[in-house]
Amino acid sequence: MGKALIIGVIIAVCIFAVRSYVKKLSHGCCGAGGDNERKIDTQGVDLSEYSNKYLIVINGMTCKNCSTRIQNRFNRDDGIYASVSHRDGNAQIYSKNPIDELFIRQIVVGLGYSVKSIEKIN
Questions:
Q1: What is the CATH number of domain 47-121?
Q2: Sign of CA dihedral 54, 57, 60, 65
Q3: Phi/psi at 12 (nearest 5 deg)?
Q4: Any alpha helices (H) in 28-100, and if so which ranges?
Q5: Which residues, at least 6 apart from 34, have a Cβ–Cβ distance to it below 8 Å?
Q6: Does the pTM of the predicted model rise above 0.90?
Q7: DSSP state at residue 79
Q8: Both ends of the chain: CA-CA distance in Å?
Q9: Cα distances (Å, whole numbers) of residue 64 to 6, 47, 112
Q10: What does the pLDDT look like over 84-105, one tens digit per residue?
Q11: Which residues neighbour 74 within 8 Å (Cβ) at sequence distance 6 or greater?
């Protein structure tokens, strides 16, 4: 009886692991579902209006959906524009007012990634 229970638990764990892996393969690394993550429209942004620029090196981005998720989160805030590249592993954040590093870290970490460095560029 005890062996059957252990074998049942092992089988359940294996099924869960395989289903999770198949989802990752079919929907991308972050599970966002291929190209389902839609970019927030930022056409017509005049970067000359943004006096602060930050370069953030981000660990954990592996696909276009990862970079789009981060970019969209920053672009929702008024006075902030972001351009994020999963290939380069970084984000360029432009803001009309100075941004606290903690604010940047909270956004990136809250989305499941980690911040390697933040550099303010003048």
A1: 3.30.70.100
A2: positive
A3: -60, -40
A4: 64-75
A5: 27, 28, 65
A6: no
A7: T
A8: 69
A9: 40, 23, 15
A10: 999 999 999 999 999 999 999 9
A11: 80, 81, 82, 84, 91, 93, 107
